[in-house]
Amino acid sequence: MIDMDRFVELGSFLEPGRPPKTDKAAILIDAARMVTQLRGEAQKLKDSNSNLQEKIKELKYFIVSVAKISD
């Protein structure tokens, strides 16, 4: 079983600079919310990265095409 100190530590990590919560349920709800938020942000970054990689490919193809035309 996890002792209360670990919950307080988690709570202070979730909201630095604020007095830590002592209610285990509230701490777990905040932690779950944070995990969900971070997963969403991670997915957005993955999508953005994929889009940027695709644009890089398109630009490389364009540069090669222009170089061939100018030869």
TrEMBL record:
SUPFAM superfamilies: HLH, helix-loop-helix DNA-binding domain
GO cellular component: nucleus
Keywords of this entry: Nucleus, Transcription, Transcription regulation
Principal cellular location given in the protein's record: nucleus
GO molecular function terms attached to this record: DNA-binding transcription factor activity; protein dimerization activity
Keyword Methyltransferase applies: no
Highest taxon listed in the record's lineage: Eukaryota
GO BP term, example: intracellular iron ion homeostasis
Signal sequence interval, chain numbering: none
InterPro entries tied to this protein: HLH_DNA-bd_sf, ILR3-like
Localization, UniProt: Nucleus
Protein name: Transcription factor ILR3-like
Organism: Trifolium medium
Phylogenetic lineage: Eukaryota, Viridiplantae, Streptophyta, Embryophyta, Tracheophyta
